[in-house]
Amino acid sequence: MNRGQATLQIGKKGLQKGNLVTLKKLFKNRESVKVILLKAAGHTKENVREIADKIIEELGNKYTHKIVGFTIFLKKWRKAKS
């Protein structure tokens, strides 16, 4: 089982349910996932923050994120964050 990092790209349609389902599946076998926002998704820092917040809201409090440029790094923790 590969416990490394997976990559998911978000394009012009933005964050959709299919992306969230894919993220949940990726976290079954991975510890971290890198989400890259393409230019077509709207390259603004506010947009990146909104998408990161939506992802964390959907995944739950066992996950955390870090934003670097137009990339969101997601990590799964063993215990839920308080």
Summarize the structure.
The chain is an alpha+beta fold and about 80 residues long. It has one domain (about 15-75). The chain has 2 helices and 4 strands.
Q: How does this model look, in words?
A:
This protein is an alpha+beta fold and 82 residues long. The chain has one domain (17-76). It is 34% helix and 29% strand. It has helices at residues 17-29, 45-59; strands spanning 5-10, 32-37, 63-68, 71-76. Strand 1, helix 1 (17-29) and strand 2 (32-37) form a beta-alpha-beta unit. The longest helix is centred in the middle third of the chain and has 15 residues, at 45-59.
The pLDDT mean sits at 87
Structural class: alpha+beta
First-residue to last-residue Cα separation: 29 Å
* Helical residue percent band: 25-40%
- How many domains? The number is 1
Biggest β-sheet strands, sense, barrel: 4 strands, mixed
Number of helices: 2
